[in-house]
C-alpha cells in the first residue's frame, strides 16, 4: 500500500471522527459539564445564603433571648412586689385579728370579773344575813327582807 494514501485516508478518518465528535459527542459533554458547574455554583450560593440565614437567625435568637431575660426579670420583680404586698396584707390582717382577740379577751375578762363581783356580793349578802342572824339569835327571812338585801348588795 501506498504510504501517502494511508496517510490521506487516516487524515480523512481523523477529520470525520473529529467532526462527528464535535457535532454529536462534544455538545452533550459540554452541556453536562455546564450543568454540573451550575449545580456547584448553586450549591455554593445556597451555602452562602444558609450562612447568612444562620447569622440572621442567631441575631434574632439573641434579641429574643435578651427580651425573654428582660421579661423574666420584670416578672420576678413583679412577683417579689406582689409577695411583699401579700405579706404586708397578711401582717395587717394578723394585727387586726390580734386586736380583735385582745378586745374579746378583755371583754370576756371584764364579764368574768363582773360575774365574780356579783357572786361575791351575793355571798357577802348571805354571810351578812347569817352574821345578823347570829347577832340577833333568830332567823331572818330572806324573802321578807329582799329589798333590804338588794340595797345591801348594791352598796357592796
From TrEMBL:
Gene3D superfamilies on file: 6.10.250.1580, F1F0 ATP synthase subunit B, membrane domain
Pfam families, sorted: ATP-synt_B (PF00430)
Keywords noted in UniProt: ATP synthesis, Cell membrane, CF(0), Coiled coil, Hydrogen ion transport, Ion transport, Membrane, Transmembrane, Transmembrane helix, Transport
Residue spans crossing the bilayer: 6-26
Membrane topology, from the record: Single-pass membrane protein
Protein location: Cell membrane; Endomembrane system
Main location: membrane
MF GO annotations: proton-transporting ATP synthase activity, rotational mechanism; proton-transporting ATPase activity, rotational mechanism
Sections of the chain in a coiled coil: 47-107
Function statement: Component of the F(0) channel, it forms part of the peripheral stalk, linking F(1) to F(0). The b'-subunit is a diverged and duplicated form of b found in plants and photosynthetic bacteria. F(1)F(0) ATP synthase produces ATP from ADP in the presence of a proton or sodium gradient. F-type ATPases consist of two structural domains, F(1) containing the extramembraneous catalytic core and F(0) containing the membrane proton channel, linked together by a central stalk and a peripheral stalk. During catalysis, ATP synthesis in the catalytic domain of F(1) is coupled via a rotary mechanism of the central stalk subunits to proton translocation.
Family, per entry: Belongs to the ATPase B chain family.
Subunit structure: F-type ATPases have 2 components, F(1) - the catalytic core - and F(0) - the membrane proton channel. F(1) has five subunits: alpha(3), beta(3), gamma(1), delta(1), epsilon(1). F(0) has four main subunits: a(1), b(2) and c(10-14). The alpha and beta chains form an alternating ring which encloses part of the gamma chain. F(1) is attached to F(0) by a central stalk formed by the gamma and epsilon chains, while a peripheral stalk is formed by the delta and b chains.
Name of this chain's protein: ATP synthase subunit b
UniProt source species: Pusillimonas noertemannii
Amino acid at each position: 500500500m501506498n504510504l501517502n494514501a494511508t496517510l490521506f485516508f487516516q487524515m480523512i478518518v481523523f477529520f470525520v471522527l473529529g467532526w462527528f465528535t464535535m457535532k454529536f459527542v462534544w455538545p452533550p459533554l459540554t452541556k453536562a459539564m455546564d450543568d454540573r458547574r451550575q449545580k456547584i455554583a448553586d450549591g455554593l450560593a445556597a451555602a452562602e445564603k444558609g450562612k447568612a440565614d444562620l447569622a440572621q437567625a442567631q441575631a434574632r435568637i439573641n434579641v429574643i433571648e435578651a427580651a425573654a431575660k428582660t421579661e423574666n426579670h420584670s416578672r420576678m420583680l413583679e412577683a417579689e412586689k406582689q409577695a411583699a404586698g401579700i405579706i404586708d396584707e397578711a401582717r395587717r390582717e394578723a394585727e387586726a385579728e390580734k386586736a380583735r382577740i385582745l378586745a374579746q379577751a378583755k371583754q370576756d375578762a371584764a364579764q368574768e370579773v363582773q360575774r365574780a363581783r356579783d357572786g361575791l356580793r351575793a355571798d357577802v349578802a348571805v354571810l351578812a344575813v347569817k352574821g345578823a342572824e347570829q347577832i340577833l339569835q333568830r332567823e331572818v327571812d330572806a324573802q321578807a327582807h329582799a329589798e333590804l338585801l338588794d340595797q345591801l348588795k348594791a352598796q357592796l
